[in-house]
Amino acid sequence: MATPVLDKPAQDATASHLITITLRVRRFLPEVSDEVTWEDFALEIDPKERVLDALHKVKWEMDGTLTFRRSCAHGICGSDAMRINGRNRLACKTLIKDINPEKPITVEPIKGLAVLKDLVVDMEPFFQAYRDVMPFLVTKGNEPTRERLQSAEDRERFDDTTKCILCAACTSSCPVFWNDGQYFGPAAIVNAHRFIFDSRDEAGEQRLEILNDKDGVWRCRTTFNCTDACPRGIEVTKAIAEVKKALITRRY
Amino acid sequence: MSTETNAAVGPVEGASLYDVDHPAPIIEPPRQRTRKTPKSTRGNFELAAWLFMRLSGVVLVVLVIGHLLIQLVLDGGVSKIGFAFVAGRWASPFWQVWDLAMLWLAMLHGSNGLRTVINDYAERAGTRLWLKGLLYTATVFTILLGTLVIFTFDPNIR
Description:
The structure holds two protein chains of two kinds.
Chain A: H1 11-16, E1 19-28, E2 36-45, H2 51-62, E3 81-84, E4 87-90, E5 105-108, E6 115-117, E7 120-121, H3 124-132, H4 152-157, H5 175-179, H6 186-196, H7 204-211, H8 225-229, H9 236-251
Parallel strand pairs in A: 1-5
Antiparallel strand pairs in A: 1-2, 3-4, 3-5, 6-7
Helix pairs in contact in A: 3-6, 6-7, 6-9
Chain B: H1 2-8, H2 45-73, H3 83-90, H4 93-121, H5 125-152
């Protein structure tokens, strides 16, 4: 019987449920070499731990030069999106037992953004696209003296896209974005969707005009990679389709 | 320059070219979005192109499957096709319009598809320009030639 409390049981009981895994990390150390290499780390770990715990174990006990981002470590901050076994996931939400620990587990930085070191990428182009869709409430007229009220149905309309944590798992899984960084990317469109369909917001038309761009929603090829990658389960491709539909119905 | 220095460093030294003060160059992804990214390509061209692809696709299913059935399956199949068969069909304005619509829609649909492929995959502006130039030239040539043939077809030509 495996117990989640590690301190309590006797030594052998704790050791019995540890397994040996191979963590295959794609490493880039600019101060050592310009070459990107795969490095294997063999470590003992509880299969119910997360990939992030394995990375911590490597960084804290084996190789302190391993570099990656993480903040809250509980799937909220969106810092530790990485490509695990060829799929974009959050390292803090992926359990070792769910990704076939018998084989080496590959960990790579997310694609389509410049790698700065190991698993750390330059997120600036991603956030630039986010800023470009004006991700804030825009209203006209005087400020009300109380809250801006909204019906439950109106709130429900954009509920799905409010869940975005800006981890870039969707955008960096998009083949169009890999080849052309000028494309806004799914995450920016999701965050535009969140305000376009908000009944309190008054700049929907402006945002639609921004996304009507050459590099806007029309570059989406509906490959559904973004929907598969989203760690929050947002139906990203559906949100993009809704923006397309809004553009068509508003124009004609 | 890097190859030169690589060759200069002997295996004896074994020292890395890079250190904390001289880190290796970072590989930038193609055409990154920056603050200066050209923002305004105003106009509804991409919207129209997207809609056209959907609508022409639906129409083309009918046109092309009908075309294939008539040409290859029904009434003797491919063996019946000859100059006389084409001449007989184009005597009727209905088939002229059918073939003309198919020519225009298929060419525009196909070249718009290729245009998006070029946009997605060609990384350098120069490559894009040339590939698209080639594509548009071929499209215009084929459409014009096809249209000319349909309208000026003479069954009594020797």
